[in-house]
């Protein structure tokens, strides 16, 4: 295939004039415009000027099998030319959606056998809350409406998902549906109260949940939603046993436990789903997106337990249907991409490779801890972050204006590596195909980048 050449300057101008970029600081964008990423291959992406970078963020936590997989492209092309789209409303279906639903039921914990498709993570979370409300309405418990989420959680940006999101700055000057959501404390082992043991910290977080249920009334609470490891909120690690204990309290109070595995799913922690394999929980619902199709096509999925489906799937009042869904629920091309993606993951043993290379990546990143600003190196397997601080002992942060995360990321990029700055953090969430040799190259670049950030 001949490479398509772009007129980089013309595209830069069009983009600057017309594309409202998500999550973008326009005070910078109006002057600088965009960096156009035009090409990709395996662990690399390239920009319009021909500069090639190691992708340290898998696009946006999603290109799990790596870039340029012709097999996924072919599966999508074949599906698009054979039957690009037809409705899945009512009794209609298509082959990739049916195959994928069954495959997800096979990969998920044994009790999750029913799949609701959406177009991404926000939409999956949004659809989930509607289904949860519907479920309790159908059970004759219409007061069970409130959703417990956590500060610093990220669940997306549809109106409802943004309301679940607990990163304060994400909702600056936006409105949220506060009557539906209560935020508990995040579980943040690094910034737990000074001198408190991990076990006591866990007790404190569980006690907060119990007190909140007591205060609001279990009859008014529908569900608790949590990422197994908080991603965009800063790769925040919970104390040992936290998730299982939170779930036990929820179960005792008929509060559904929703695991948002949009990032942790599809291999990032070494398993297709981390909830049961890593965190010993048995969620009523697991949401996934991103790695589900490795970002080759937009897709989200809500995996629903047999118990819940018994209610959702029983006949409605006369003349009614389960009136929720999207034109693109079960989109054939997206589902074909996901099936090809899963086939690659299984054939290449990608989860096993993450279980082997992930701990090495963690260990090697921790060698950066001697650098002046590095306060914490944390995370698990292919989901990691470095927290920059002004003072390692007090964990005091550098002033926002120092833009330390941006500066480290810029130094890394100059040296051929893209990592993600989020405030004072640098996030590393690579394609799952990094091997030890790539890890060594990446850590050497980061070593130089931190040294150059003064
Ligand atoms: N949930 C989690 C845990 C996420 O990290 C994200 C996106 O980063 C979302 C939901 C939202 O997904 P999307 O951007 O596909 O709507």
Automatic annotation (TrEMBL):
Its cofactor is pyridoxal 5'-phosphate. PROSITE patterns: AA_TRANSFER_CLASS_3. Keywords: Aminotransferase, Pyridoxal phosphate, Transferase. GO terms for molecular function: pyridoxal phosphate binding; transaminase activity. Pfam families: Aminotran_3. InterPro entries: Aminotrans_3, Aminotrans_3_PPA_site, PyrdxlP-dep_Trfase, PyrdxlP-dep_Trfase_major, PyrdxlP-dep_Trfase_small. The keyword Glycosyltransferase does not apply. Gene3D superfamilies: Aspartate Aminotransferase, domain 1, Type I PLP-dependent aspartate aminotransferase-like (Major domain). Belongs to the class-III pyridoxal-phosphate-dependent aminotransferase family. This is Aspartate aminotransferase family protein.
């Amino acid at each position: 295939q001949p490479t398509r050449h772009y007129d980089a300057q013309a595209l830069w101008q069009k983009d600057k004039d017309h594309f409202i970029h998500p999550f973008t600081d326009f005070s910078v964008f109006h002057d600088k415009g965009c960096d156009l990423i035009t090409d990709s291959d395996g662990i690399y992406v390239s920009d319009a000027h021909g500069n090639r970078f190691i992708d340290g963020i898998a696009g946006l936590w999603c290109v799990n099998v790596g870039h340029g997989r012709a097999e996924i492209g072919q599966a999508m092309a074949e599906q698009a030319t054979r039957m690009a789209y037809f409705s899945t409303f009512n009794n209609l279906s298509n082959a990739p959606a049916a195959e994928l639903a069954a495959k997800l039921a096979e990969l998920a914990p044994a009790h999750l056998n029913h799949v609701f498709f959406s177009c991404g993570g926000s939409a999956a979370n949004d659809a989930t809350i509607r289904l949860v409300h519907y479920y309790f309405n159908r059970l004759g418990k219409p007061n069970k409406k409130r959703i417990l989420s956590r500060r610093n959680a990220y669940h997306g940006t549809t109106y409802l998902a943004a309301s679940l999101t607990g990163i304060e700055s994400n909702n600056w000057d936006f409105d949220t549906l506060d009557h539906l959501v209560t935020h508990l404390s995040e579980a943040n082992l690094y910034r737990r109260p000074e001198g408190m043991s991990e076990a006591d910290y866990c007790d404190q977080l569980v006690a907060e949940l119990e007190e909140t249920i007591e205060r609001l009334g279990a009859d008014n609470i529908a569900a608790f939603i949590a990422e197994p490891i908080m991603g965009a909120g800063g790769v925040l690690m919970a104390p040992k046993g936290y998730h299982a204990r939170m779930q036990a309290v929820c179960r005792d109070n008929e509060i559904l436990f929703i695991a948002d595995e949009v990032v942790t799913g599809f291999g990032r922690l070494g398993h297709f789903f981390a909830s049961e394999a890593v965190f010993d929980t048995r969620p009523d619902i697991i949401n996934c997106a991103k790695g589900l199709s490795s970002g080759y096509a937009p897709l989200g999925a809500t995996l629903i337990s047999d118990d819940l489906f018994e209610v959702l799937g029983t006949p409605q009042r006369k003349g009614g249907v389960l009136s929720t869904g999207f034109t693109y629920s079960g989109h054939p091309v997206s589902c074909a991409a996901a099936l090809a993606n899963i086939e690659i993951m299984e054939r290449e043993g990608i989860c096993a490779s993450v279980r082997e290379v992930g701990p090495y990546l963690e260990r090697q990143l921790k060698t950066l801890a001697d650098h002046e600003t590095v306060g914490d190196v944390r995370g698990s397997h292919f989901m990691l972050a470095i927290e920059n601080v002004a003072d390692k002992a007090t964990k005091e942060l550098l002033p926002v204006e120092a833009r330390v995360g941006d500066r480290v990321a810029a130094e890394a990029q100059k040296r051929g590596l893209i990592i993600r700055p989020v405030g004072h953090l640098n996030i590393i969430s690579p394609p799952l195909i990094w091997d030890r040799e790539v890890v060594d190259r990446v850590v050497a670049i980061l070593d130089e980048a931190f040294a150059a950030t003064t």
